[in-house]
Every structure is written in C-alpha cells, then in structure tokens.
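Reproducibility note. Readers wishing to regenerate the assembly model reported in the main text can use the exact inputs given here. Chain order matters: entities are listed in the order in which they were concatenated for prediction.
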Amino acid sequence: MKSGDFVLIDYIGKVKDSGEIFDITKEDAAKKEGVYKKEFRYGPVPIIVDADFVLPGLNEAVKEMTIGERKTIELPPEKAFGKRSDELIKLIPETQFRAQGMEPEVGTFITINKLKGKVMSIDGGRIRIDFNHPLAGKTLVYDIEIVGTISEDSEKVKAVVYYFIGVPSEVVQAEVKEKEVDIGFTKKFDILTEAKQTIAETIIKWVGMEKVKFVDVFYKEK
Amino acid sequence: MKSGDFVLIDYIGKVKDSGEIFDITKEDAAKKEGVYKKEFRYGPVPIIVDADFVLPGLNEAVKEMTIGERKTIELPPEKAFGKRSDELIKLIPETQFRAQGMEPEVGTFITINKLKGKVMSIDGGRIRIDFNHPLAGKTLVYDIEIVGTISEDSEKVKAVVYYFIGVPSEVVQAEVKEKEVDIGFTKKFDILTEAKQTIAETIIKWVGMEKVKFVDVFYKEK
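Running the prediction on these inputs yields the following structure tokens for the assembly.
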C-alpha cells in the first residue's frame, strides 16, 4: 500500500505481556475471544495511509503490505502510545475532590481538566492519580489483515466522515461531480463547524476535492 | 397589510403608566430618548403578518395599516403580555439557594428551571420571587410606522433567518430557484438542527418554498 491509499483493515490489538485484547474489528473474533460488546460497531476500519488515522507503527506496517495479506506486528511503546512518564503521576489533595462533591476510589478513572486519570492510591489525605495513557509503556501486538481498498471518490468521502464523526456510510450521501462533493445525511445530525472543517480539509487533501459542501435539506410535507 | 405579508416596521414600545420605553427600533429616536444601547441592532424589524412574529395586538394593528402610515395604539394586557398571575409568585426556602452557592438579593433577577424571576423580598428564611413577565399586567403604548414591505423571495428568506437566529442579512446568501432555496452564510455558524427545522418550516409556509437547503461550503486553499 502507498501513501494516500484508502485501505480497509481488520485487526486485533493486544498487550504483549498480558495478552489483553484492547481493540478488535471482527465481530466473530470478538465473540470467540469473549470480548464482544453489543454496542460496538464491528467491521473493517477505513484508514488513509500516512494521514495520521492510526498509530505510526500500524501505518508503517500497512505500507509494507498488499491486499489480502495478513501480518502480526509488534509495536514498542515509542511506535504506539509512548513511554510512561512519571511526571504524569500527580498527587492531589483529597479536599480538592470533596469541594466538588467527588469521592475518588482506588482503581477507578476520573477526569480532571479533560484529562483522564486512574486513581492509584489514597493516603494521608493525598490522592495519587496516574494520567498516563493506559497503554503507555506497553508493547502492543497487532494482527492485521488488509481487507481491500476504496477507489471510488464518494466512498472515500464516506470513509472520512465515518472516521471523524462515526456516522455510518449508509446514512451518508456523497455526490461527487468532478472536484466537488455534496455531503448530506438521511438523518439529521448537529455537526459542529469545527468537525465539518476537519472533514472538509481531509477530503480536500486526500480525496483531491476542491470544494466540499455540507447540505441539510428540508422538504415541504405532502 | 394582509395575512402573509412581509412587512418592515419601526416602533417604540412604552409602558402606558410609567412612560418607560422597553423596545425601540430607531437609532436616532433611541438616542433622543436617552435609551440608546451600543450593542443593540437598530433598524426596521421584518415581521410576517399572522405568523406569530409579534404580539397579537401589534399584529392586528399592522393589518389595518398601509405603507408609510404611522399609528399609536394601546394594548391592554390581554393583547400584550397577559395579566399578572398570583400563582407565578413563589416562596422558596433560602436554604435551597445556599445549597447551590447562590445569594439572591432583593430587586435582582434570577433564573430557576429556565424561568426568570424577580426577587421581591427575603423574609424569615423564605424568598418571594415573581415569575410573571415584567410587562404582564401592563397596558402598552406602541408608536408604529410601516416602513415598507419585502416582495423578493430571497429577501423574505433572509428576513426569516434574521428573525429566528439574528444573523443579519448581509451575511446570509439565499439563492432561490423556483420553489427551492439554498441558504448559505459568508461566516461559519453552528446552527442547531432544531433551529434549521423551524426556519425551514417558516420559509415553506410563508415564502411558499417546497425545498429549503442549508449549505456549508469549504474550499481548497489556493
């Protein structure tokens, strides 16, 4: 695969040491492994090679592969979620939580200033919280399979929309005329201008469009 | 003027008893009367006759008038903001505010469950709040002038957008083709689907469109 390709991949991501599965795209595999979640949307994931859609190490691996190929790769922390940093372990006075009516418990996750951290210990009125990514410092193992590629511009557009806001392609209308695309939805969504901007920039850069139009249509009731 | 007309009106609204001006559309008049506010957007207000854009009494008066005409009308409470209701005066324990870190003061307005009320008195741990509209029970005097009408469909569309979300017409693009209109903005706004729905329904009903399209366009940077 090469830079800019729209590739559909299936994968299973595991922590090397523990064997714990943290990400899996195939429904049957998830059931077999006992990690199936009803609300999760299974199926091959569309990625754009070199567009920062996936971990650097995963992107590199995909570049080396061809359609239909399967491969198991190992990603050291520096090609995955980075090393653990002691500076991201913070001691916070218990009173600070009390004031906000929060009662942290060891082992639970809490969010402070949009950062998610795990409560490590509560001791002498001080709470130790680890704000490292749960997968930081871990070597990951990915089983990857290249399922196919996307070549139609309208399908590429839908893949970008799905990637950024999770709206499945059957709800998205993408009408391409030369270098312009009209994007509509069969259901109504509130999509922030910021998200539209990001989607549009990605489509312009990676699908090669010059004009991206988001369209919301209302009809007279018959 | 008749039902469905798009009419531009200037007006001054006063409380009959006190003479207090609570609404005024002309900048020079506002300055003359000493009620000018820098941040307020002065200028004739577009209304649609019979579309619930203004108080019932104001709507009735406009229907009787012609372009260029001026008229002073008196609206009794029942044609304006209704009579005062004793049931909208509530006694609330002071502790309830303390729990939320609020300290009400007599004469100020506070909002509870999206209802705005005026603090009347604080007595024996109980706070008396008046949730009546400040103009309820008042007879109002309006000086109205019919400045003109809007006949172009695209200008009607802009008037509806302005009425519902306050976006001035110079920022709005309305392209009408037969029974369809494309609405765009020269600046980017986050407009909720609910607001778009209301705007679209009003345009369909009162401008006679069959399809209303909101369009957000992003271009490739040159």
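We highlight two features of this model. The longest helix of chain A spans residues 193-206. The first strand of chain A starts at residue 6 and ends at 15.
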